[in-house]
Amino acid sequence: MVFVRGHRSSYDAWVAAGATGWGFADLLPFFRRSENAVGRVSDLRGVDGPLTVAPASPPHPVPTALLQAATEVGHRRATDISGGDEEGFGWTDLNIIDGRRQSAADAYLTPALARSKLDVVTDALVHRVLITRGRRTGVEYSVGGSLTSVGCSAEVVLTAGSIGSPQVLMLSGIGPPSQLHELGIEVAADLPGVGSNLQDHPVANLAYQAARPFRQERTTMERRLACYAAGRAWMARTSS
Ligand SMILES: Cc1cc2nc3c(=O)[nH]c(=O)nc-3n(C[C@H](O)[C@H](O)[C@H](O)COP(=O)(O)OP(=O)(O)OC[C@H]3O[C@@H](n4cnc5c(N)ncnc54)[C@H](O)[C@@H]3O)c2cc1C
């Protein structure tokens, strides 16, 4: 439920590494279009997008004290670390509406379900993207063990996650030829990077006993998220 955009310098480092079109200025219009950042008044934030994001309200006393402590020992206080310009400790936004998580499906898919051009197939396992003469022509998938396919004239957007996406690509013949040959998969595109460079995202949670009682009405998850938010701000600061 934590909603944090990266720092401007992180996206700009992608451009420096060769990813033209993925700099902060390139992405900002899309970030703005996606979000309804409640209470954030800034040219860097959007206010009429489908994703509702806002800091936890009311603020919990533990992360409030943590933020104050960070400021007292000299760390910079950020008013909005998702703006992309600031570094320091601050409240992050959360994807919560009326106490419940707002998923990407809540924000984008559910409102579009009635569109006549949209078919949603659930409980489906994608086997591969179909490729003819180097162009995608559709997707092969199964539902309840029965294999079927759907054709396409435009894009296939593959969003099967950090392990599933490269797996589907490799099953489709897109990947390192030596590995594909070993598995008897015909090579459609020689892309050695597919399926490699998976990186862990380590997070260390620290548990403390409070010196005095504090109110309990919010859930453990919400408290954890608020503390996590402060930690992310710290990581953003120390990694830059
Ligand atoms: C514990 C945890 C906490 C996190 N907390 C946050 C947070 O607070 N804020 C934040 O921004 N991010 C958070 N993340 C990261 C975030 O969840 C991911 O970045 C995000 O979900 C990636 O979205 P995605 O659509 O690319 O992939 P996923 O959400 O992984 O979705 C991929 C989907 O594809 C399906 N799939 C895979 N293979 C196939 C196949 N062959 N056929 C059909 N379907 C397939 C999978 O079942 C899955 O449903 C967290 C991640 C973890 C693990």
TrEMBL record:
GO molecular function per UniProt: flavin adenine dinucleotide binding; oxidoreductase activity, acting on CH-OH group of donors
Q: List the SUPFAM superfamilies hit by this protein, alphabetically.
A: FAD/NAD(P)-binding domain
Q: Which lineage?
A: Bacteria, Bacillati, Actinomycetota, Actinomycetes, Propionibacteriales
- Which keywords fit this entry according to its UniProt record? FAD, Flavoprotein
Keyword match Flavoprotein: yes
Gene3D superfamilies attached to this UniProt entry: 3.30.410.40, FAD/NAD(P)-binding domain
Q: What is this protein called?
A: Choline dehydrogenase-like flavoprotein
**InterPro entries in the cross-refs:** FAD/NAD-bd_sf, GMC_OxRdtase, GMC_OxRdtase_N
The chain positions of domain Glucose-methanol-choline oxidoreductase N-terminal read 161-175
Q: Which cofactor does it need?
A: FAD
Q: Name one Pfam family in it.
A: GMC_oxred_N
